[in-house]
Design brief:
Blueprint: E1 2-6, H1 12-21, E2 25-29, H2 33-40, H3 51-56, E3 61-64, E4 75-78, H4 93-104, E5 111-114, H5 122-131, E6 143-146, E7 165-169, H6 172-182, E8 189-192, H7 195-226, H8 230-237, H9 261-270, H10 277-302, E9 312-316, H11 331-341, E10 345-349, E11 355-356, E12 361-362, H12 366-372, E13 375-378, H13 387-393, E14 397-399, E15 411-413
Parallel strand pairs: 1-2, 1-4, 2-3, 4-5, 5-6, 7-8, 9-10, 9-13, 13-14, 14-15
Antiparallel strand pairs: 6-7, 11-12
Helix pairs in contact: 4-5, 7-9, 7-10, 10-11
Length: 414
């Protein structure tokens, strides 16, 4: 058996390595030459995949940008980005391009599985017609399934092997083929009745988080006006052993899923004459959090007789989540842009992000950065950063992640 993976990013490369480590021949397809050159040299561009892991599959892995190589695969899994357009509508360009590439060399009996997050109906209505341009019929001549990725970058307790895998097939036979494939790398398979059910399952998972994060963010803003410590409230509520799940406020959502996926479903719902007001309101609240955080920065400086313009502001942690260097949709990017527009002299420290090229900045040493700033702002709380030292060394610290103690004369929390 040979498994092809189209798209070698945060989803595709770990999946390829998982199959390769089971001794299965794998073909990695990507259009990025730097990515392919690095992989051929044994260098990983993904934090969760080490050079040692790449070396372990060297005997079974092939890296290519030739569509013809996909025709030699028994199964091809699509793991390309599904971003939003400038109008916050689904951009299926990468997904449809991948389907067109596969269709060029699709062979009878082959299986195509989509892992990219998308709205219900995409696989059946958008991908299948492209694949059938090969002259073959989906579900008869070749199998089609949808199995959403469940990758959480930086996490080690849940892996490809022990994370339950949702699978939905175009037909019962397609489902059987797909579950057999994934059983080689996943211990717990969760079959559902259709690709649409699998597509919506993925969106529900992320919208659940988005809505609850928006709720606690809105309460954080209300608690600020009421002069109540939201972190004390969250800690107290979390002692309830049933009927409550802990969510924490923060500067906004980042990454490749949470800021994007709710808008996919909201867009799709409009095609069914329905407005998903609850989902869209959550997105609106979360998108506004960086603006609120910048307002908190201005208030913190103002309380010390300083204006934003000309003040030295140090951002501590800028990636979208703790423990990774991923900058996709990171709230720090919007916070940084807004502060620069307000005239702040910006610097940052992040052990996972050596440079922020769009701002012409490089990460500074924590000690020197803290000593030189007027205000330190903890945006992302990396586990290896000494946040107590930030509070002790900076004139004042604004903690957007709740990792420092209660408000004091030296610090305040969101």
């Amino acid at each position: 058996m040979r498994v092809g993976i189209v798209g070698l990013g945060y989803v595709g490369l770990p999946l390829l390595v998982a199959f390769g480590q089971e001794g299965i021949d794998v073909t990695g397809f990507d259009v990025s030459q730097p990515v392919l050159e690095g992989l051929r040299a044994g260098r990983s561009h993904i934090e969760d995949i080490s050079a040692e892991q790449l070396a372990s599959i060297a005997g079974v892995a092939k890296w290519t940008d030739s569509p013809a190589d996909l025709g030699d695969c028994d199964a091809v899994i699509v793991c390309v980005p599904t971003p939003l357009s400038g109008n916050r509508e689904p951009d299926l360009g990468p997904l449809e391009s991948a389907a067109g590439t596969i269709a060029l060399h699709l062979t009878k009996g082959q299986m195509v599985v989509v892992e990219s997050t998308t709205y219900p109906g995409t696989t059946r209505e958008r991908l299948v017609p492209i694949l059938e341009s090969s002259g073959m019929t989906a579900g008869t001549d070749f199998a089609v399934a949808y199995s959403p990725e469940r990758v959480d970058p930086g996490r080690t307790d849940f892996t490809m092997r022990n994370t339950p895998k949702i699978v939905g097939g175009l037909t019962d036979a397609c489902l059987a083929r797909a579950t057999e494939l994934y059983s080689k790398v996943c211990d717990n398979l969760v079959p559902v009745s259709s690709p649409e059910a699998a597509e919506l399952t993925k969106l529900l998972e992320n919208i659940f988080r988005s809505v609850n994060i928006a709720l606690v963010n809105e309460l954080a803003m209300l608690a600020d006006r009421m002069d109540i410590d939201i972190w004390e409230v969250v800690d107290a509520a979390a002692t309830k052993p049933y009927g409550f799940m802990r969510f924490e406020p923060g500067p906004g959502m980042g990454g490749h899923c949470l800021p994007v996926d709710p808008f996919y479903l909201a867009w799709r719902a409009r095609q069914f004459d329905m407005s998903t007001e609850f989902i869209e309101l959550a997105g609106k609240v979360n998108q506004q959090m960086p603006y609120y955080c910048v307002d908190r920065v201005a208030r913190a400086l103002n309380d010390r007789g300083l204006a934003v313009r000309g003040s030295k502001v140090l951002l501590v942690g800028v990636s979208y989540k703790a423990g990774v260097g991923d900058m996709r949709e990171a709230p720090a990017l919007k916070i940084a842009r807004l502060l620069v527009e307000e005239g702040a002299e910006l610097s940052y420290h992040d052990p996972m992000v050596p440079s922020m090229d769009r701002f012409g900045l490089e990460s500074v040493e924590l000690e020197s950065g803290v000593a030189a700033c007027d205000l330190a702002v903890i945006v992302t709380a990396h586990p290896d950063v000494d946040h107590d030292a930030v509070v002790a060394g900076a004139p004042f610290t604004l903690d957007l992640r709740g990792v420092t103690g209660p408000d004091s004369d030296r610090s305040a929390r969101l």
